[in-house]
Amino acid sequence: MIARMGYPQPPGNQWWGNQPPSPGYYQPGYPAPRQTNTMAIVALVTSFVFAPLGIVFGHIALSQIKRGGEEGRGLAIAGLVIGYVFTAMGIVFVVIWVAMLAWMATEMDKLPSTTTTYGRYSMPAATWIAPGDSLGTGVRLTNG
Is residue 123 part of a domain? Predict the structure, then answer.
């Protein structure tokens, strides 16, 4: 209080110029932040769980954001990108899996088969070479 009574203060030390506002006066606040679109959040989450659903929710979120002016455009685009990438990876995986199954089925048909009581794809009958006959010129015993 003494500083206000006329005693000179050094320059740059004018703390009394920053007085709090008088009672009843409030400074204007910041505008309320825009709300994030819920569908954009759902699109991002579901793109990790079930990618095609994330794609659908991402497109819905983008259209709602364009109409309503909400936040969340980046979340919706991220959900779309992740959904499309995971869906493409899933399709490639299924195509490779079906191709492998088809290849295995054709290779199994090429295997030699003997008809036994156990089914078509059994092992061929075993052949034994007599002891001491290393070149296979002696007696052969076959099973079955």
Answer: no
